[in-house]
Amino acid sequence: MIATALAGCEDRREDYGPEKTPTATARPTGTSKHTLMVDGKERSYLLRRPAGLPSRPAPLVVMLHGAVGTGEQAESSYGWDGQADRGGFLVAYPDGIGRAWAVSRDCCGAPARDGIDDVKFIEQLVSAIAKATPVDRSRVYAAGISNGGMLAYRLACDASTFAAIGVVSATLVGDCPNPRPTSVIHIHGTVDKTIPYDGGPGKRDNDGTGPVPAKIDGPPVSELLARWRRTDDCAPPTVTVKDPVTTSLAACPDGRAVELVAIAGAGHQWPGAPGPKPVAQRLLGLDQPSTALNATATIWQFFAAHPRQG
Question: Does residue 176 lie in a domain region?
């Protein structure tokens, strides 16, 4: 997916290693570009700070692009800027090295091959933003699609920063022996051929030979969410069917929740997003996004209702 140029971004370099301390200068409003050093590598991200943001600490959403995407592409594709302007929260759009994220030894692309610690990058990104702009630490969230959604699951497995994650068309790969109690909303199309709803390797680029080499062989989505309900010690889910959407929502202690939103007939795309251009759809075999719901609005509504308590 090719990103369009983002005009007017302000480029700021940051190094928040132990030898340097950031200034307390607030971020500019609108979208600005930033870098920081993590394990000797320069990492980049965009930050959206709505005009008129209240002076009190604001929620923060970290939006993780899919494989072959970028932060710029994620900002332009999924409608989070408008949602942030209406909801009064910050959005960060990080860039994966080589347009991918490391979520296991076999996935995905150059970051997995080179042992990149993307969990560390995202945690340091949150800290960097919070040092310059007031962030409500009880309302820090991660959202992602495909490889980005897989990183969101890794964050819930390996970090304690996030109150909730919002996942679209993704799965959990690699070990997760000590998952953190975290609210989860997972949106998935039932005919997704890239990361199948019923589990398994799928058919596109998942054999380790595609443009972003990856070996993805996840569990059925229903089993993955059942596992997370056990992690969160949830009550049995309540199931609601409004064709073509089936929602399974489980209430959990301390205000947490685990929600699965299955969309019958939907493929591997962000529901409610603009569709791919015909040329890209033909060359890359991209699915048309479902119009059954707006994933961005649905995920934000879930996030807003589930801050971390205690």
Answer: yes
For residue 4, being part of any structural domain is answered with no
Nearest residue to 4 via CA among 61, 64, 49, 69: 69
What is this structure's pTM? 0.88
Question: Cα 3 to chain center, whole Å?
Answer: 17
Compute the mean pLDDT over every residue in the chain, rounded to the nearest whole number: 88
CA dihedral 177, 180, 182, 188 (to 10 degrees): -20
The domain tally of the chain equals 1
Please report the pLDDT score of residue 162 as a whole number: 98
Residue 137 within a domain: yes
Q: How many CA atoms lie within 13 A of 237 on its CB side?
A: 22
Is 6 part of any domain? no
**209 lies in which domain range?**
11-305
Handedness of CA 215, 147, 264, 203 (dihedral sign): negative
Query: What would the pLDDT profile of 196-245 be if each residue is shown by its tens digit?
Result: 999 998 765 555 555 565 678 899 999 999 999 999 999 999 999 999 99
